[in-house]
């Protein structure tokens, strides 16, 4: 049996193959491109990827990033890159039990203290 | 590598608590389930802005106004984090929004109830956000990396949401007779819908088994619901209020609260679109999107003009 | 003794415009901009609270009594702040006019002898710098965007322009005059880049600073103050 495996690489998704893609959007100018956001906090030494957002141009992308991802933290550095310009490495499945980079915070099951106590939470 | 080998590798990652990242191979069904779940979660945050946004202009003090505005703004941000996570799976914002507006995608039914009094702001913060938090903490350990990371960020910011809701009710509970009545009335109207937030009984839940295997879902509907009831049944005592369930009773043997049966007719009706505000909520979102079309278009056209001008300059 | 009328004027400006902007919450043209405008709204309400708290101390009142229990004739905000939001063009243009004015005002205020006002101005200046940039860019985007967006901008200019004069027309309780020139220059610069025509001299609306408002403010206050009026003397 011939099985076709489609691999999606982050940012490399051509619009017509996207799982939810709308086909030809070129006629409509309504859709703002996707930008990836990288933030370096005041205490940080390098920029971390924090997520993405839609903006019409770079100025707007930076302003939106400030509104969404920094909540008025002072002295941060923001980088934005249109997602389509990000090229991702191609993981070789046979080799990979790789460790995910940097963010291990999610592994702590008690990260969030449940408001179980009877006082003011 | 054959599909079976890829699937084995994929499942073993999951079993070992190794996160699945956007570039990894994943079963199509896993991808589809996640797109559905994450985007519905995102829609819930966005639609959820409406019942609360309703009261920003009428908040009874400047402090409450500012807090409510900040909370609703947070929710917009959470929606954004989640749309962002969904887009790593190959869908686009446009597609997810189209699915919401067409009625194809769901959002949390709780937001199909109207906010009638100021006390509703308290009830929503305490009960609705309280329920959401239980779910979200569980999702911080979900198998898909971007989703888990979005949930961690959301949980960090969520901490004040439930607090401010309870605080609103606490203030009311210590106030005038009218305020105390307002408080109890809001609790009466929001209690059962909050329980419905946890979804149908485990036995009726269609996606559950596979989602559990893939560690998308880490606790069952009924488990979470029980946890919620146990928590709230204690907290309500501090308010000096009651929950509208005459079957609510501490069961020493189970070490849990027993509680009454949800009106599943109401549950399924609201899910199907027959709730008090379903149409109103979707209409509002559609209107905002449609009314905004010229804005989005203008911004893109301007960006292109700018680009062409700068290219001309370089040439 | 600080001029409490003036402080109330500063507070009312920020509160009423903050209130108007907050009406967009959940209804913005795109999610990211919903966040941006509510951000601005939150900043303005924060500024309002700082001013009300100061005035409250001087008057032996509370911030809420001042915001919730004064009627239309006692509010001292500029008319520009109370105008309806209209469409996105009207909203961002109103913000551009107002924030550009606030920028000049706060820049001067940081030098004033009243330490409290100077401190509020210093904090607010950071926020307003962002408001000016954000709104300027939107004026340019919409002015130099599509035919439709330009048409809407022209309509917005037509509606709002006659309310801009009041910003620089001192009220009876205003002891300093602001220099309008930098504001005028900024408007010219941005309008030029936005390919928008600069309006000529028109008759300017005034009165808000002295409590003579448009019919809009009454409705704003009804909505804003209703809880405190319906349930007097309560804690919230």
Keywords:
heterotrimer, A: 121 residues, alpha+beta, Ubiquitin-like (UB roll), 3-stranded antiparallel β-sheet, flat, disordered C terminus, C: 236 residues, mainly alpha, Ferritin, 9 helices, 0% strand
Protein described:
With 121 residues, chain A is an alpha+beta fold. Chain A has a single domain, classed as Phenylacetic acid degradation B (Ubiquitin-like (UB roll), Roll), CATH 3.10.20.520. Helices cover 11% and strands 17% of the residues of chain A. Chain A has one helix and three strands, in the order E-E-H-E. Chain A has a three-stranded antiparallel beta sheet, covered by helices on one side. The longest helix of chain A is centred in the middle third of the chain and has 13 residues. The N terminus and C terminus of chain A are likely disordered. In chain B, helix 5 runs antiparallel to helix 6, helix 5 packs parallel to helix 7 and helix 5 runs antiparallel to helix 9. Chain B has twelve helices and two strands; from the N terminus they run H-H-H-H-H-H-H-H-H-E-E-H-H-H. In chain B, a hairpin with a 4-residue loop joins strand 1 and strand 2. Chain C is an all-alpha fold. Helices cover 64% and strands 0% of the residues of chain C. Chain C has nine helices and no strands. Chain C is globular and about 55 Å long. Classes of the chains: A alpha+beta (121), B mainly alpha (315), C mainly alpha (236).
Instruction: Give a quick account of the main beta sheet of chain C: strands, pairing sense, barrel closure.
Output: none
Low-confidence stretches of chain B: none
- Taken from the alpha-carbon principal axes, the silhouette of chain C is globular
- Mean of pLDDT of chain C: 96
Give the low-pLDDT segments of chain C: none
Order of helices and strands of chain B: HHHHHHHHHEEHHH
Head-to-tail CA distance between termini of chain C = 32 Å
What's the number of extended β-strand segments of chain B? 2
* C-alpha end-to-end distance of chain B: 49 Å
The top level CATH class name of chain C:
Mainly Alpha
Largest sheet features of chain B = 2 strands, antiparallel
What percentage of residues of chain B falls in helices of 4 or more residues? 55-70%
CATH superfamily of chain C: Ferritin, core subunit, four-helix bundle
The spatial strand order of the largest sheet of chain B comes to 1-2
β-strand percent of chain C reads under 5%
**Mean pLDDT across residues of chain B:** 91
Radius of gyration of chain B: 22 Å
The H/E string of chain C reads HHHHHHHHH
Overall 3D shape of chain B? globular
């Amino acid at each position: 049996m011939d099985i076709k495996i489609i691999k999606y690489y982050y940012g490399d998704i051509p619009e017509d193959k996207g799982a939810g893609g709308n086909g030809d959007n070129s006629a409509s100018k309504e859709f703002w491109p996707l930008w990836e956001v990288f933030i370096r906090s005041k205490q940080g030494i390098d920029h971390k990827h924090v997520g993405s957002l839609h903006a019409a141009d770079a100025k707007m992308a930076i302003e939106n990033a400030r509104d969404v991802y920094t909540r008025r933290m002072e002295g941060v550095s923001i980088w934005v890159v249109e997602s389509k310009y990000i090229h991702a490495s191609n993981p070789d499945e046979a080799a990979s039990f790789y460790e995910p980079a940097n963010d291990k915070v999610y592994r702590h099951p008690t990260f969030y203290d449940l408001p179980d106590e009877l006082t003011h939470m | 590598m054959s599909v079976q080998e890829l699937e084995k590798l994929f499942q073993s990652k999951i079993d070992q608590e190794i996160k699945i990242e956007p570039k990894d191979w994943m079963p199509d069904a896993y991808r589809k389930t996640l797109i559905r779940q994450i985007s519905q979660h995102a829609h819930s945050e966005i639609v959820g802005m409406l019942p609360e946004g309703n009261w920003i202009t009428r908040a009874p003090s400047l402090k409450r106004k500012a807090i409510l505005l900040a909370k609703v703004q947070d929710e917009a941000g959470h929606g954004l984090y989640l749309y962002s996570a969904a887009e790593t799976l190959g869908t686009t914002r446009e597609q997810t929004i189209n699915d919401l507006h067409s009625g194809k995608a769901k959002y949390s039914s709780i937001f199909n109830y109207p906010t009638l009094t100021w006390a509703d702001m308290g009830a929503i913060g305490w009960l609705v956000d309280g329920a959401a938090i239980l779910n979200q903490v569980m999702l911080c350990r979900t198998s898909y990396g971007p989703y888990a990371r979005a949930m961690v960020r959301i949980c960090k910011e969520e901490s004040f949401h439930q607090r401010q809701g309870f605080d609103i009710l606490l203030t009311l509970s210590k106030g005038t007779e009218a305020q105390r009545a307002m408080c109890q009335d809001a609790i009466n109207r929001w209690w059962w819908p909050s329980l419905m937030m946890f979804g149908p009984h485990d036995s009726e839940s269609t996606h559950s088994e596979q989602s559990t295997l893939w560690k998308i879902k880490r606790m069952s509907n009924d488990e979470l619901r029980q946890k919620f009831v146990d928590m709230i049944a204690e907290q309500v005592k501090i308010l000096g209020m009651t929950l509208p369930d005459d079957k609510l009773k501490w069961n020493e043997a189970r070490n849990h609260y027993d509680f009454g049966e949800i009106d599943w007719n109401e549950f399924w009706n609201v899910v199907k679109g027959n709730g008090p505000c379903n149409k109103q909520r979707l209409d509002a979102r559609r209107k905002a999107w449609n009314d905004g079309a010229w804005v989005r278009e203008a911004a893109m056209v301007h960006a292109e003009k700018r680009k062409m001008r700068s290219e001309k300059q370089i040439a | 003794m600080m001029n409490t009328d003036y402080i109330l004027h500063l507070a009312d400006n920020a509160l009423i415009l903050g209130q108007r902007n907050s009406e967009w919450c959940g209804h913005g043209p795109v999610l990211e901009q919903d966040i941006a405008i509510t951000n601005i709204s939150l900043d303005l309400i924060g500024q309002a609270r700082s001013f009300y708290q100061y005035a409250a101390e001087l008057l032996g009142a509370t911030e809420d009594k001042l915001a919730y229990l004064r009627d239309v004739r006692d509010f001292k905000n500029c008319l520009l702040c109370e105008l309806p939001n209209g469409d996105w063009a009207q909203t961002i243009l109103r913000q551009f006019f107002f924030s550009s004015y606030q920028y000049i005002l706060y820049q001067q205020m940081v030098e004033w002898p009243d330490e409290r006002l100077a401190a509020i101005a210093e904090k607010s200046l950071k926020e307003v710098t962002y408001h000016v940039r954000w709104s300027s860019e939107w004026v340019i985007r919409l002015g130099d965007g599509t035919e439709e967006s330009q048409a809407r901008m022209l309509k917005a200019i037509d509606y709002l322009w006659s309310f801009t004069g009041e910003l620089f027309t001192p009220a009876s309780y205003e002891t300093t005059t602001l220099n309008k020139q930098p504001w005028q220059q900024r408007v010219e610069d941005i309008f030029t880049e936005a390919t928008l025509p600069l309006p000529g001299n028109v008759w300017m609306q005034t009165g808000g600073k002295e409590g003579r408002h448009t019919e809009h403010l009454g409705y704003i206050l009804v909505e804003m103050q209703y809880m405190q009026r319906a349930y007097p003397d309560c804690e919230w």
